[in-house]
Amino acid sequence: MTPRGWAVLTLAALVLALLVVGVLLVPWSRPPAPRSDQLAALRDLPADQVARGRALQAALRPGRYTGLAVGLVVALLLGLTPLGARLVELAGRPFGDHWIARAVLGGIAVVLVADLLTLPFAAWRQSVLTRYGLSTQGWGGWTVDLLKSYALSAVVAAVVLLGFYTVTRLAPRWWWAFGAAGAAGLVVLLSFVLPVLVEPVFNRFTPMAQGPLRTELTALAARDGVPVRDVLVADASRRTTAVNAYVSGLGPTRRVVVYDTLLREATPAEVTSVVAHELGHAKDRDVWTGTVTGALGAAAAVVALYLLGSWTPLLRRAGVDSIAEPRAFALLVALVTVVGLIAGPVQALMSRRVEARADAHAMALTGDPATFEAMQRRLAGVNLADPDPPRWAYLWSASHPSTVERMAAARAYAREAGR
Ligand SMILES: [Zn+2]
């Protein structure tokens, strides 16, 4: 069989594996609470809170979607015309057109052009968040964060680009197989290593002070069978008034991280409720599910790109001879951008189901749906969420159930537990 034949077979196997993982590991049997319960929850929320959340989301929306559209147009313009190939050539010229310069500098240049053209939308978003009092960060701090994340992406991109184009040179017929394995490995690595490396770049963590809350959270984790090494407080207030908590690390390095804003805004019982939700993710191995899905998806994407990349009209449009050469990087980015837009809503749907399961876990662990509901109200109020967002926006990108869905789920849980 030819490499192309093997690629078709591999792609079929990967897609099948993705479907199996999606069906088996995502809790599909947990549909949202009835709409009538959600509307009842919405009526119980203070009208000014709902209005303020909706006003913020409406103010953010034009920038968000225009930015998305501009990013897409730039990616298509660079990838489906010879412009991207020319940009890569330009980046390699000072270095005698060496392939490494084209691969690394050219690749970073392509990504940077898209980043810079969408930068005004990121700045606009920051100005809206500041106007609504959600961001506590000045433009100086915002710029420093931006430069940090550019630097971080440039380092990751340089490693990936160099690795990828080394493989396409060494194995011109079979690069897709190594590329797929490499992409899957990279997803695993980024999902476990990156949080540990990246978190300290943006935030400072201090152990939570000894006291009843720390004791309660540690005991909660132990009772849940998810022992944690430490309970840390992140100095999120440097950047935002939004509240959050999460569990990161695996096994012996697992730790609970609570935003300092959460400690300031919420009652200890509510903090416990949030942490119980996060423990649910750890207990149900949601990070593993996400990582396995991501790794299979990345491998499938590489094989699909190889197959698409042998389509001559596409290559001719981009002015390149092969998808495997550095000059074709913009074409790769364009294809990945389109695939990402299609995959986004599917990912969001799976994420919402997983989040609903963590919510149920939190209520079962604390046995306190009333506090869970109170916490959801507070979360929506502090984070200025739209408690019941427009259906299309929800389906397009909501990673969590809406506030009214979560409140309705809490009421359903209380009803069932009381029976
Ligand atoms: Zn969650």
Percent of residues in beta strands? under 5%
Largest β sheet strand count, sense and barrel closure = 4 strands, mixed
- How far the N terminus sits from the C terminus, by CA atoms, comes to 63 Å
Number of helices, counting only DSSP H or I runs of 4 residues or more: 16
Can you give me a brief rundown of this structure?
The protein is mainly alpha-helical and 419 residues long. The protein has helices spanning 3-25, 35-44, 47-79, 83-92, 99-131, 139-170, 175-202, 212-223, 260-265, 268-283, 286-308, 312-318, 329-366, 369-382, 391-397, 403-418; strands at 205-207, 230-234, 245-248, 255-259. The protein has 16 helices and four strands.
What does this structure look like?
- With 419 residues, the protein is mostly helical.
- The protein has 16 helices and four strands.
- A hairpin with a 6-residue loop joins strand 3 and strand 4.
- Helix 1 runs antiparallel to helix 11, helix 3 packs antiparallel against helix 13 and helix 8 packs parallel to helix 10.
- The radius of gyration is 23 Å and the shape is globular.
- The model has no long low-confidence stretch (mean pLDDT 91).
- Bound molecules: zinc ion.
- The site of zinc ion (ZN) has 4 residues, from helix 10 and helix 13.
- One of its GO terms (biological process) is CAAX-box protein processing.
- Pfam families: Peptidase_M48, Peptidase_M48_N.
